[in-house]
Amino acid sequence: PDRKKAILRNQKIGFVFQFYHLLSEFSTLENTMMPGLINHDSRSTIRDSRNKAQMLLQKLGLGDRLTHRPNELSGGEQQRVAIARALMNNPEVLLCDEPTGNLDSEMGKEILDILFSLNKEGQTTIVIVTHDHEIAKRAEKVVEIKDGKIL
């Protein structure tokens, strides 16, 4: 059923999109907290979500940007907020669609370093969809698809 699929996506899978999909009316902290608040409304859940979001944002170098809105952040900062948001519920799998596609090469390398270190530190499987062969070279395993077929 749709509800069970939504719960599975929220609790087990994190998504990092090429376009960050941050909500413009919410702060960095609020955008990051969102997955932790879905389907919960108790005060302790809000407090726990806030603490977890602050910890993730601090780890990603955004501890001083908690109250900033997305339009006040650089592209790299927005992508790091999107990564923090994707990690809020400790997903087993993190799906990333061209996570560095809109970033300059230096910021793209920083984002990839973060993603690969998260994979090594934790129990999170990271799947990166990319057309960039340099990114693919960094992966443990590469599956190449051409014309809809696995090569």
If strands are numbered along the chain, what order do they take across the biggest sheet?
1-2-3
Based on Cα principal axes, name the global outline: globular
- Tally the helices: 6
Class by alpha and beta content: mainly alpha
Fraction of residues in H or I helices = 40-55%
Q: In terms of per-residue confidence, which ranges show pLDDT below 50 for 5 or more consecutive residues? A: none
Radius of gyration: 16 Å
* Total E-strand runs: 5
Report the biggest beta sheet as strand number plus sense, adding barrel if it closes. 3 strands, parallel
The average pLDDT value, as a whole number, equals 89
Strand content: 5-15%
N- and C-termini, Cα separation:
34 Å
Please tell me about this protein's structure.
With 151 residues, this protein is mainly α. Helix content is 49%, strand content 12%. It has six helices and five strands, in the order αβαααβαβαββ. The protein has helices spanning 2-12, 28-37, 43-59, 75-87, 105-121, 133-138; strands at 13-16, 93-97, 125-129, 145-146, 149-150. It has a three-stranded parallel sheet with strand order 1-2-3. Strands 4-5 form a two-stranded antiparallel sheet. Helix 4 packs parallel to helix 5 (105-121).
